[in-house]
């Protein structure tokens, strides 16, 4: 046999602490056909700075779709099917880098996904630039060993093969046709080169994570051994591995046979004809022909109803948007279900882009259509192949897949199933009527069940307290829910830590009404003739109030304009308020002050457009303005030959309290805010900053009277006042 090794690599990603699915970094690989060995190379590393500590990285694996994970232990939505993912932990302690290998023998061909993340996020709000987070990097590489000339086992044809040594097992593959109800694999004529009793192990199927349903049988002696499979995967290659348990070479003969199910359904001509008529309307002359054909086929269908193993219903896949599909039944939303053979619906999810959403199935029983009061419609949702024996065992499983059972009855006429991240494959919905034992009229009973099936990015659009986000990894798209107001869970349905409506209203009132503390600062500025500064404070108060009214996560929300516009105006007003306050304290010449006002505002607006949350957008203007103020104060002090400001009362009752309030506000803003206490810590920030402005504004000029009317002379002479030179001239 000729083996070929292949190597696939993807770029490293920076890991994040986990708070929702968007924090998990996804890697998407495709395993080729005839792969006999898969090896993952997982490389994790961290920075070398003092901010880096010991960390544990969790890595999840899944075949066919992104892994469904729950690191926070929250609740999933009702009727959602959740199976734990296969995961490992990688520790980063004293070593800066960790390399881990994960081996998978005979992996299933197709899409494989890896998701990696750090532990739960602490919830602290960090200002960008105040602290440097430790970088944790993760990279996944894939090695595959592929068999280029894997022998093909044809159905019904015996194939002799030889196992040379236990280190080199025998690999063959057999193609499973469509409508295969069962498969039987036989191993015959097993002899060793030493003419002793042989011992071999046969493994059917491939490994899929998190669950693997490989079938294994051990054959000893010269007797034939066999393995039977119910509902093998349709239209797929099935791998068979035979390995010797002894040291000598073994010669065996293999045989595979299938039991084929004969479906009974409407002809394809009728399906396309009904689809065409539903879209374009009936054409002239087509009514007679279309009605004559079903009449002629009716006797044959009635006579063959007992001989068919399933009744297939035509389903149309309608793509609506990204990861959004609706399935429409051509014969109407209701399907007939009888006890003789299951009714089958095919749901096509093999486009490669369907596994990033949620498959929702809803069944509604028409109570007037059931002849028996105690009858139950049993349904089973499976991938790759359908369940064809619901009436016998009621076991919702195929050869290599554990399905999802559903049932509706007169007592419970509705049933819903949510499959999170369904794997890429053909999905099947099997329905059959199960009647109570001992009633002869069971065979004549029939039920009508309305089926609704659709694929959606997020179930219920993440509810009232969540936001559905479309995530991307290279060309692959998938969706996740980002919850707010304390809600959690996969679809934001877990209210364990949810905020009450009263608490949401309180948070909104605190964050908005705390901006009213700018009113004293505005009054002081107007009283002291600082009208430009008062206008800036009014602008800041207005947009900060309505930005926080729009930024609320719960139901107490009011947006007067676009959210991004409100946020930008709030950030701009906050930084410009600090800028004009410090420049006003510097007591430079008016013309220079207003030039700096306008120039600084333009530069601040530009920097906020580049990086709105950067710390230097606030610290840069503050430091520059402080430099101007210190230089101006030093100039005034040297010119007057004493400290400036000269009044000790100005320092004790105004400057020191204002500076203290400003430093406390910056400390609360930078180091104390978290997601839980944001509504009152940020309100404290509003109050402290607005109060500090009222203290820090300098007094008005001594020669100016507070808002006095200008003096008028009755003889039409006007007194002109020169504020700078304090001279009066009569014109």
Automatic annotation (TrEMBL):
<feature type="transmembrane region" description="Helical">
    <location>
        <begin position="616"/>
        <end position="635"/>
    </location>
</feature>
<keyword id="KW-1133">Transmembrane helix</keyword>
<feature type="transmembrane region" description="Helical">
    <location>
        <begin position="506"/>
        <end position="530"/>
    </location>
</feature>
<protein>
    <submittedName>
        <fullName>TMM8A factor</fullName>
    </submittedName>
</protein>
<dbReference type="InterPro" id="IPR000742">
    <property type="entry name" value="EGF"/>
</dbReference>
<dbReference type="Pfam" id="PF12036">
    <property type="entry name" value="DUF3522"/>
</dbReference>
<feature type="transmembrane region" description="Helical">
    <location>
        <begin position="678"/>
        <end position="697"/>
    </location>
</feature>
<dbReference type="GO" id="GO:0005886">
    <property type="term" value="C:plasma membrane"/>
</dbReference>
<keyword id="KW-1003">Cell membrane</keyword>
<keyword id="KW-0472">Membrane</keyword>
<feature type="domain" description="EGF-like">
    <location>
        <begin position="481"/>
        <end position="492"/>
    </location>
</feature>
<comment type="similarity">
    <text>Belongs to the TMEM8 family.</text>
</comment>
<dbReference type="InterPro" id="IPR021910">
    <property type="entry name" value="NGX6/PGAP6/MYMK"/>
</dbReference>
<feature type="region of interest" description="Disordered">
    <location>
        <begin position="276"/>
        <end position="307"/>
    </location>
</feature>
<feature type="transmembrane region" description="Helical">
    <location>
        <begin position="591"/>
        <end position="610"/>
    </location>
</feature>
<feature type="transmembrane region" description="Helical">
    <location>
        <begin position="651"/>
        <end position="672"/>
    </location>
</feature>
<keyword id="KW-0812">Transmembrane</keyword>
């Amino acid at each position: 046999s000729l083996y070929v090794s292949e190597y696939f690599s993807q770029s490293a990603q920076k890991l994040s602490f986990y708070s929702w699915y968007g924090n998990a970094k996804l890697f998407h690989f495709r395993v080729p056909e005839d792969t006999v060995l898969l090896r993952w190379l997982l490389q994790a590393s961290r920075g070398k700075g003092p901010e880096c500590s010991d960390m544990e990285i969790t890595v999840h694996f899944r075949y066919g779709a992104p892994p469904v994970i729950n690191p926070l232990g929250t609740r999933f939505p009702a009727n959602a099917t959740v199976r734990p993912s296969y995961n490992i932990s990688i520790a980063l302690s004293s070593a800066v880098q960790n390399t881990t290998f994960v081996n998978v023998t005979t992996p299933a061909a197709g899409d494989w996904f890896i998701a990696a993340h750090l532990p739960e996020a602490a919830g602290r709000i960090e200002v960008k630039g105040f602290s440097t987070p430790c970088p944790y990097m993760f990279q996944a590489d894939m090695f595959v060993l592929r068999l280029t000339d894997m022998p093909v086992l044809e159905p019904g044809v015996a194939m002799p093969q030889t196992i040379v040594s236990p280190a080199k097992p025998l690999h063959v593959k057999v193609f499973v046709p469509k409508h295969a109800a069962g498969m039987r694999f036989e191993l015959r004529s097993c002899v060793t080169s030493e003419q002793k009793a042989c011992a071999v192990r046969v493994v059917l199927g491939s490994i899929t994570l998190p669950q693997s349903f490989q079938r294994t049988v051990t054959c000893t002696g010269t007797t034939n051994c066999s393995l039977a499979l119910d509902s093998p995967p349709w239209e797929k290659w099935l791998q068979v591995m035979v390995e010797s348990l002894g040291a000598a070479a073994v010669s065996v003969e293999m045989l595979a046979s299938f039991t084929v199910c004969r479906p009974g359904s409407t002809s394809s001509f009728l399906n396309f004809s009904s689809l065409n008529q539903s879209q374009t309307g009936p054409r002239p002359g087509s009514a007679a022909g279309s009605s004559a054909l079903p009449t002629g086929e009716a006797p044959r269908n009635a006579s063959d109803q007992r001989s068919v193993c399933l009744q297939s219903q035509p389903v149309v896949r309608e793509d609506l948007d990204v990861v959004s599909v609706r399935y429409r039944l051509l014969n109407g939303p209701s399907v007939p279900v009888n006890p003789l053979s299951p009714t089958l619906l095919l749901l096509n999810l093999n486009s490669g882009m369907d596994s990033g959403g949620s498959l929702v199935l809803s069944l509604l029983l028409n109570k007037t259509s059931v002849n028996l009061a105690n009858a139950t419609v049993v349904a089973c949702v499976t991938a790759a192949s359908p369940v064809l024996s619901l009436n016998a065992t009621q076991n919702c499983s195929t050869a290599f897949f554990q399905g999802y059972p559903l049932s509706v009855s007169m007592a419970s006429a509705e049933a819903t199933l949510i499959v999170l991240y369904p794997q890429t494959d053909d999905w099947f919905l099997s329905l059959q009527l199960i009647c109570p034992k001992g009633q002869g009229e069971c065979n004549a009973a029939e039920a009508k069940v309305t089926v609704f099936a659709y694929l959606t990015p997020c179930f219920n659009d993440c509810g009232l307290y969540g936001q559905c986000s479309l995530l991307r990894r290279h060309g692959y798209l998938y969706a996740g829910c980002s919850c707010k107001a304390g809600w959690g869970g996969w679809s934001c349905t877990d209210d364990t830590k949810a905020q009450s409506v009263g608490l949401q209203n309180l948070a909104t009132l605190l964050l908005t009404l705390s901006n009213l503390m700018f009113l004293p600062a505005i009054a002081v500025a107007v009283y002291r003739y600082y009208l430009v500064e008062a206008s800036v404070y009014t602008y800041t108060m207005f947009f900060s109030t309505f930005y926080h009214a729009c930024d609320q996560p719960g139901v107490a929300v009011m947006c007067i304009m676009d959210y991004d516009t409100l946020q930008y105006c709030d950030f701009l007003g906050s930084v410009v308020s600090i800028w004009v306050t410090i420049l006003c304290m510097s007591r430079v010449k008016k013309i220079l002050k207003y030039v700096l006002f306008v120039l600084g505002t333009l530069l601040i607006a530009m920097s906020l457009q580049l990086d709105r949350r950067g710390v230097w957008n606030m610290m840069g203007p503050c430091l520059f303005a402080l430099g101007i103020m210190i230089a101006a104060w030093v100039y005034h002090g040297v010119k007057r030959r004493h400290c400036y400001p000269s009044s000790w009362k100005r320092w004790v009752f105004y400057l020191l309290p204002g500076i203290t309030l400003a430093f406390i506000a910056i400390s609360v803003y930078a180091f104390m805010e978290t997601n839980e206490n944001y509504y009152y810590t940020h309100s404290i920030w509003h109050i402290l900053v607005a109060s500090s402005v009222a203290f820090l504004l300098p007094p008005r000029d001594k020669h100016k009277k507070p808002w006095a009317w200008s003096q008028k002379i009755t003889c039409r002479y006007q007194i002109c006042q020169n504020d700078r030179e304090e001279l009066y001239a009569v014109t």
